[in-house]
Design a protein that fits this description.
Elements (H helix, E strand, L loop, with lengths): L1 H19 L1 H39 L3 E5 L11 H5 L6 H10 L3 E17 L2 E11 L3 H4 L4 E4 L4 H6 L3 E4 L1 H8 L8 E4 L2 E9 L14 E5 H4 L13 E6 L5 H15 L11 E4 H44 L1 H9 L4 H38 L7 H27 L3 H6 L1
Parallel strand pairs: 3-8, 5-7
Antiparallel strand pairs: 1-9, 1-10, 2-3, 2-9, 4-7, 5-8, 6-7
Pfam family, one: MacB_PCD
Organism: Pedobacter punctiformis
InterPro entries: ABC3_permease_C, MacB_PCD, Macrolide_Exporter_MacB
Length: 414
Amino acid sequence: MIIFRLIGESFRFAFDALRQNKLRTMLSLLAITIGIFTIIAVFSAVDTFRNKLQASVDKLGSNTIYVQKWPWSFSDNYPWWKYMNRPQPSLRDFAALRERMENSDGITFEIATSNRTIKYRSNSVEGITISAASQDFNKTWNFELQAGRYFTENENKNGTPVCLIGADIADGLFGGDEPVGKQIQILGRRVTVIGVFKKEGEDMLGTSLDKSVNIPINFAKGILDIQNERYGPQITVRGSDKVSLEEVESELQGLMRSIHRLKPGQEDDFALNKTTILSNQLGKMFDMVNIAGWVIGGFSILVGGFSIANIMFVSVKERTNIIGIQKSLGAKRYFILLQFIFESISLCILGGLLGLLLVYLFSLLIGAIFDFHIILGLNNIMLGISISVVIGTISGFWPAYSASRLDPVEAIRS
């Protein structure tokens, strides 16, 4: 109880000193506030981007592999001419994989064409992406339907003119009317709407289906050259949850080499792309941004630490006679030491809380202007307070130690 009482008295002395010197206190807080604001704002923004990226990866499927002509990442001196000479993924490759692949939950052949216009009577929507996929599209892509149904196997096999449309397209063409069962004009053909994708919103990888139309691949054969490179043909493989992504990739690589009849030692003429490639590259970028936040905020906090140490030395000088009276009345050294350390910590915590408040207000402003909501997480709040406590302890220790070593007689006479 004596210890708690002494700590309480130390805090009371500290807050009295801060209250009596308001202007000096606010000026001392400024650098700490800016430093904490910089670090926590950067960390909060990075955490928000990282979470959105992870959500995008989860939507695509963390165990999904894309067989494509071009890899998603290159080395510094990549031989681009080798990639240029690679063949496009073909329907023959797709049929062989579907027949021989064991560790997969779904395999699709897909193409896409962008910046198209679709019409319904006098209404039209521009800038649409039209994609065509084989039957397992609902197994290789995570999506929900807000109305209607998915393709049947016969519709896909027979190339029936049916489609699934995004929520934004449904709103643009039909307003509040029911879109299912109506015919729209796509690529010069009349196609019946059988389903509407649930609204998803934009994500970091640009994988939203809100402005997309999906048609069966066999129907697309009659109106597009699906093997043309301009449509980006690819084979999407969703690996089985029972095996690791590495096993799926190893099996897929072996099958593709066998299908393309590549000899041992011969380079692959295809790319196996994974969402982890993007997340790892962006993760490295986020780490660099974190370091930049530490460096920029660290300089502000360093300046703030020196400022607070200087203010504490001034405070000790101003209260030397009071310290002498306290020591002559029996105050122990640790009481004087705690009194000034708590004052320094209180200054830094107050500056840290102001910095966190600025981050919160900044996140609200960004959300209101750009519709991008930065999340100030509990971990970043605790980090800001912890940094404030550490800086306060370091900055206040030497002034507090010098105050605790004062001779009471000399202190009173000062």
